[in-house]
Amino acid sequence: MAKISEMTQLSPTMSEGVLVKWLKKKGDSVAPGEILAEVETDKAVMEMEAFDSGVILEILAQEGAKLPVGAPVAIIGKAGEDITSLLSEAKSRSSASVASPPASAPASTSVPSPSPSQAPKKTETVASSTTPKLEEEEVSPPKESPVSRGLSPSALEGRVKASPLAKRLAQESGIDLSKIRGSGPDGRIIKRDIENGISAFSSSGISPFAGEIVQEEKLPISGMRKTIASRLVHSKTHQPHFYLDMEIDADALVHIRENFNSDLKESGEEIKLSINDFIIRASALALLKVPEVNSSWREDHILKHGRVDIGVAVSIEGGLITPYVRNADKRSVLEIGRTVKELASRARERKLKPEEFSDGTFTVSNLGMFGVNRFAAVINEPEAAILAVGNVVSKPVIKNGSIVPGKTLSVCLSCDHRVVDGAVGAGWLEVFRNFLEHPLRLLA
């Protein structure tokens, strides 16, 4: 008997998802556990499995559609089976809850969604040491000049729809996106439109360059942004934050890192360790020395964790996500570096598994690569503390009674006062500082 396959809840916080790409098409045979499609949740792009065996008799949702959990996406049954009643049921359910965007291709044709782009403009505790590589989706070429019909449909609606890469190229070229006609799904502007627009503008003499005009704009709130807002507001209103600042002598740390990376290069290793890799290692060892910071409030008790799982805040398009380095205290600096880079790469591709960005014990947020000297971060609940890391700064310092050139690093530990008292937090920072100021101990 044929059944309707529904949008699956792929994470605990997921209420809706975007159907990114169908991996099966109408007429394909499927079995329980086979992957039907890729779905973008509020955290990552994840695989949606089939729960029934049979043949895909109908595709009910187009690629790019935003669907609530439980929405019909396909009908699976025996070949040749009558599905008239199921189609009516699916149509009734969809009309009540789903507004699917017009598709530029049949449901059985793959149209990959845009890849994640650069860091968002507004994120409270974003940290990332690398810039994501931008890629662009392939779609059918435009049937008309991107400027032959005037303003794009999205511009007429008051909001320009463009892929992250198209926005970046337009910004770099000084192009006004409202003068570009998009050829992507639902009039979305993609890379090819920008390139064609530059060519068309050059030959036609029309100026694509944006003027000095600032316009009011209402931006839609993504599922990820809603989740971030909810979690951070809950953290700030339910966890009594207090903050401890400390300046650390970073001369030895910088020197050790340079030598370590030089040795790695000579041995043929492609990886280059960051300051943050050493900071994660030092944090893990400090948590072993002061386990009270590696704890969580549980209303009727305080849970002192028996593991050290350190999160690294990574900026992605539309927000941030915190993948965890599991058992960080048992990993070398090199292992930590490799793990962080691999996790950050998959985070930006929205390919993390739920278990990779949940249930940690401590978080590090580093904005030093953006030139930020000092900041305070919001605790990643239910953890009891988060370490905010600034830039390594060159400045005069006093050593042995003399003023000499030196390098310093500023950090700020945000603590949940229900779990961590001031003296405990200060003690953790002191242990952390000793590890960084004597970095050879981190290599043991």
Question: How would you describe the overall organization of this protein?
Answer:
- The chain has 444 residues and is an alpha+beta fold.
- The protein has three domains: 3-97, Beta Barrel (OB fold (Dihydrolipoamide Acetyltransferase, E2P)); 114-220, Dihydrolipoamide Transferase (Irregular), CATH 4.10.320; 223-443, 2-Layer Sandwich (Chloramphenicol Acetyltransferase).
- 27% of the residues lie in helices and 23% in strands.
- Strands 9-18-17-16-12-15 form a six-stranded mixed β-sheet. A four-stranded antiparallel β-sheet has the order 1-8-6-3, with helices on one face. Strands 5-4-2-7 form a four-stranded antiparallel β-sheet, with no helix packed on it.
- The longest helix is centred in the middle third of the chain and has 16 residues, at 223-238.
- It is globular and about 85 Å long.
- The relative contact order is 0.12.
- Residues 98-157 have low confidence and may be disordered.
Quote the CATH topology of the largest domain. Chloramphenicol Acetyltransferase
Oligomerization state? single chain
Q: What's the total number of strands?
A: 18
Overall pLDDT confidence = 82
**Content of β-strand:** 15-25%
What would you call the shape?
globular
Structural class: alpha+beta
**Distance N to C terminus:** 63 Å
Order of strands across the biggest sheet?
9-18-17-16-12-15
What's the CATH architecture of the largest domain?
2-Layer Sandwich
Our count of helices gives 9
- What does the largest sheet look like? 6 strands, mixed
Number of spatially distinct domains:
3
Element order: H for helix, E for strand: EEEEEEEEHHHHHEHHEEEEEEHEEEH
